[in-house]
Design brief:
seven-stranded mixed beta sheet, 11 strands, mainly beta, about 50% strand
């Protein structure tokens, strides 16, 4: 498995911004960001198909979140702007898409990071 380490989480007021980073030990062509709030299922936030230059976003974050990459560091980022209270969750980085699901499904990815907490307050 690819080793993934997330960072950049923290506490911020609604309307603020955070930038998450995911450092990968090996190259993974498809990488995504998922999040999970207490008592809820893990949901897809954004995915990048790096070799195709294609990105996908959940409707709830379109226009506010941007997924990007830095190949020199083998790192994927998630820039989060105009944060809302409902964005509060543990954010996970995922890699190695298995073709066994869509970009927003947890079962589609083989490798996972430990997560970084994002708290948005009013």
């Amino acid at each position: 498995q690819v080793q993934l380490v997330e960072s950049g989480g923290g506490s911020v007021q609604a309307g603020g911004s955070l930038k998450l980073s995911c450092a990968a030990s090996l190259y993974s062509a498809q990488m995504g960001w998922f999040r999970q709030a207490p008592g809820k299922e893990r949901e897809g936030v954004a995915t990048i198909f790096r070799d195709h230059g294609v990105t996908y976003y959940a409707d709830s974050v379109k226009g506010r979140f941007t997924i990007s990459q830095d190949n020199t560091k083998n790192t994927v980022y998630l820039q989060m702007n105009n944060l809302k209270v409902e964005d509060t969750a543990m954010y996970y980085c995922a890699g190695e898409w298995t073709y066994r699901g869509s970009w927003y499904e947890t079962r589609a990815f083989k490798s996972w990071g430990q997560g970084t907490q994002v708290n948005v307050s009013s």
